Amino acid sequence: MDAISSAPEHSGLSRRSALRRLGGAGAVAAAAVVAPVHTEAAARATAADRHEALVRRLFAVLNGGILDELDALIAPEHIFHACGRPEPIVGRAALKELLGHARAAHQDAPFVLASTVANGEQVAARWTRQMGANGPESGDASEGIVSINGQFICHIEDGRLVETWNVSYPQGS
Question: Using CA atoms, how far apart are residues 148 and 44, in angstroms rounded to an integer?
Fold first, then answer.
């Protein structure tokens, strides 16, 4: 059996170890041995990058107010879980309606995306929002400005959000 045909049994070796095992058969054979490990890692990183970009785009669309752009980001059967709601909001249309009301109540209060972390098909996002104290979720009206902190955990399949969990609370809670 030549060095290249035996390469799969050595998958995961370092380049130096692969060269030693192959008896100096050459860089081509060594690359064939270690390539699957690097390719899988690159694919995971690329998927994570795409998923994080999708969530960043979601926040940009929310801040821009053109909710029809959500059609490209959110699956039609999306499920949105919100802390304090006994039942999830099911369907992209229902979510767009909710987001439209939230946007209309606080148009001058953008979501500020603080950070994102992706792992597989999940992305966690931390966000903040400062708004005038004029809505039922905004806390004590005597304070004037209320800062809301929140986290999204988004599940992504086929390039679209299929399920989101949201927790938000006034700063200092």
Answer: 33
